[in-house]
Amino acid sequence: MGSAQSAASNPRFATASRAFTKRELEDLKSLFVSLTAQSQSDSKYISPTIFQAFFGISGPLASRLFELVSQKRNDGMVTYEDLVISKAVYEKGTRDEIEEFIYGLCDVNGDGFLERCDLEAVLDSISDAVFTPKNTQAALSSSKLVMKAFLSATEFSQEVEGKVENCMSLVDFRNWCNVIPSARKYLGSLLKPPDTVRPGFQIPHLLHPENLSPESLTLQKEHAWHILGALSQTGAQQWKLVYHSAINGLSFSTFMGSISSVEGPTILVMKDTEGHIYGGYASQPWERHSDFYGDMKSFLFQLYPQASIFRPTGQNNNLQWCAVNFSSDSIPNGIGFGGRANHFGFFLSANFDQGHSFTCTTFNSPCLSKTNQIRPDVIECWAVVTKGINDDKTELVRGTVLERFKEDRNMLKLVGLANSSE
């Protein structure tokens, strides 16, 4: 009866209620009753403290979310009607409605303009909510550098009278969400119960040898969170390090031997001698081909000094490249992504001592490094695996391909290395 009366007196609530099933409304009501009891409000409202504690967020972003959910009344109360109305827009609205809500949410100071300081506060909130506290000053400094890379992907094109710096327009914000999809997932799931799988809150478990410290890895957990945003949620389980140039050496044959048993997707990460970090997600196994192959799940990414995701545009099918022991100049030996032969979006030669990166229409990606010609410093390859599979095989492979695969001559013949290795 109470809900019927509320709907009759509040047209916005009546419209919002129709976005939910009867069961969903019952669940929302149960949640509201539970939180009002904790708020000691005689079942009338949810207090800011209980609201923020339940949804697991804090700081300026949490205050701004409470302000929007309470319809900007500034009375310190979220009613049941407020909760239904907000979730109807935030979770059930059109894509444009949801992104407009999130855009307003990121304006944490509430002045109507999305400034750099607002986005910095948002990234601080993400860092606090998603990543465990850093236990050393060096680790904290490293994390801040990574988060700064997410900020570097932004554009602030909106000129505002009285503002010294430009602000972020809604178009700018939507573009940022496209290249930092994990941030978009995080900001779009803040009102989901914390006991559910909330997109944007997960980090893959990075499996690596015990004798290799996390700090010595190029791929940090903030990077993994960023890449995960472009994958389905099933990619959040475990990523296993299968090749590291500092241990295995800069050897293409060893690389191919190390990854040959990987049947699923891999993540190739490179740090070049300029200090830039970037790579590609290969949805298909690395196998010898004389032409491009793969599918539209592959993508390129930047991690530092700017972080961005570049998905396939559909303009061509030049996705993955893996050429071994070809003698034709038109078939460059090495691995790569996008573009065309000898003009890839990202390419490492078979010598693993050089490569290149050019703008390419395959992923609408820019040159990923400082210059088109690149020299590797560290190369890592991570296998995306399902939790529980191959957990005991975390040691990296050492030695030549022949030492590892004496029993598998067919694989060596496939990649054309058997005769040359003898």
Automatic annotation (TrEMBL):
Keywords carried by this UniProt record: Calcium
Gene3D superfamilies, alphabetized: EF-hand (1.10.238.10)
Highest rank taxon of the organism: Eukaryota
Keyword presence, Calcium: yes
Organism: Dendrobium chrysotoxum (Orchid)
Domain TLDc: 217-385
Name of this protein: TLDc domain-containing protein
InterPro entries registered for this protein in UniProt: EF-hand-dom_pair, EF_Hand_1_Ca_BS, TLDc_dom
Pfam families given in the database record: TLD
